[in-house]
Design brief:
By secondary structure, the chain is of the alpha/beta class. The protein is about 40% helix and about 20% strand. The chain has 14 helices and 14 strands. The strands form 4 sheets. The chain has a 5-stranded mixed β-sheet with strand order 5-4-3-6-9, sandwiched between helices. Strands 12-11-10-13-14 form a 5-stranded mixed β-sheet, with helices on both faces. A two-stranded antiparallel sheet has the order 1-2. The radius of gyration is 21 Å and the shape is globular.
């Protein structure tokens, strides 16, 4: 994360408030930020000069002269984005308002190592960049969401589960050299949290977004900003120990982690052990939707395990919402089980106004978040 992203009232913050609809004029920004009008005007002018904002027309008057309206240019800046899954790569261009263009997805196995993945990403994003420039858009950077731990300050992958060859791989610098533009790399749960917050919860200041798919992760939004922690591992609930795991070995090298009983990979393995064909989270979801009893039981149990870990998070952090995303969030038994455990284990003060819901940002939420992170980083 850049210093500009961390500072309320920075150019990146001003850009975000206009892009998400929270402010439509300099006067709105002054009220929203509590800064001097001269400071806000300087930030706005930086963004106008950079082509990231336009100022024209007239907004509604609150007494006195009608303010000029701020907007994101229709053919303005975009970031090229890639949302990486363990078995797919989804790419698209993301604008400042969160709109995604030219989205495509193809199968790819990340366990084949970084070399093949980088070749696919570079080829896809190079073609995507050419299409954006032909459409009159300015490409300002690249955002990558990776399904594993990331040191965001170094853009380096750190000990991802079940992905040989990726540990300490410098994905950011490799892609920046190949693509010739700045690159931001973050884990996929953080990217999902950014995208879901912009798409469906922009008015909330504090929320936890869980990604329940092959593994389990979460992103934390605090005071309206993504919170990554000291080294980027904030929100990593996958390797919290739970009693139900009963000493089961985890791919991280420890035993008893949440992922070993609540991740899609663990559920699929348990189903296969009982002779039920299941390889992916999508297979599990299909089985639950078709009423397969063992799959439904395992998914409900997974929801209770996730809820038990989240109950500590909710009591400690006191968010306004817990949003469940990822492929498994489409299973209502999982969402219901998480909700039930949170109401059972959390303080009434923490849950009295807590929203617990499935994500609504759609399949592009992670892609959008990765692109927005790159745009925020590229702001003056």
């Amino acid at each position: 994360m850049t210093a500009a992203e961390e500072q309320p009232g920075s150019a990146a913050h001003v850009l975000e408030l206009v892009a998400n609809g929270s402010a439509a004029s300099r006067a709105d920004l002054v009220r929203e930020l509590g800064l001097a009008a001269s400071t806000v005007s300087a930030r706005v002018q930086e963004l106008v000069d950079a082509g990231l904002l336009a100022e024209d027309g007239e907004g509604a008057s609150r007494g006195g002269r009608r303010p000029r309206r701020l907007r994101v240019p229709a053919n303005g800046a975009v970031a090229l984005a890639a949302d990486l899954g363990s078995h797919h790569i989804r790419t698209g261009a993301v604008g400042l308002t969160g709109a995604a263009f030219d989205v495509e997805e193809e199968a790819h196995d990340l366990t084949a190592g970084p070399g093949p993945a980088v070749e696919v990403i570079v080829a896809r994003l190079s073609r995507l960049g050419d299409r954006q420039r032909a459409a009159g858009r300015t490409v300002r950077g690249v955002g990558i969401g990776f399904p594993g731990p990331v040191d965001p300050s170094a853009g380096r992958i750190v000990a991802p589960s079940r992905m040989p060859g990726w540990h300490l791989y410098e994905l950011r610098d490799t892609l920046a050299a190949r693509l010739g533009m700045p690159v931001v790399v973050d884990n996929d749960a953080n990217a999902l949290a950014l995208g879901e917050h912009r798409a469906a919860h922009a008015s909330l200041r504090h929320l936890v977004v869980v990604k329940a798919g092959r593994g389990i992760g979460s992103g934390v939004v605090s005071h309206g900003r993504l919170y990554r922690g000291a080294r980027g591992s904030a929100g990593d609930i996958s390797h919290v120990r739970v009693d139900a795991a009963d000493g089961r070995p985890c791919s991280c090298g420890n035993v008893g982690c949440l992922e070993t009983v609540a991740g899609g990979a663990a559920i699929a393995a348990a189903l296969r052990a009982d002779g039920i064909a299941a390889e992916s989270a999508a297979d599990i979801l299909r089985l639950v939707e078709n009423g397969e009893p063992h799959a439904t039981t395992l998914v409900r149990q997974a929801g209770r395990h996730i809820g038990a870990v989240l109950s500590v998070v909710v009591n400690f952090f006191n968010p306004e919402a817990v949003v469940l995303g990822g492929a498994l969030s489409g299973a209502e038994p999982l969402v219901a089980a998480v909700r039930g455990v949170l109401y059972e284990r959390c303080l009434p003060m923490a849950t009295s106004e807590l929203a617990i819901t499935a994500a609504t940002g759609g399949p592009d939420a992670g892609l959008t978040g990765a692109g927005l992170a790159a745009l925020q980083s590229a702001a003056p």
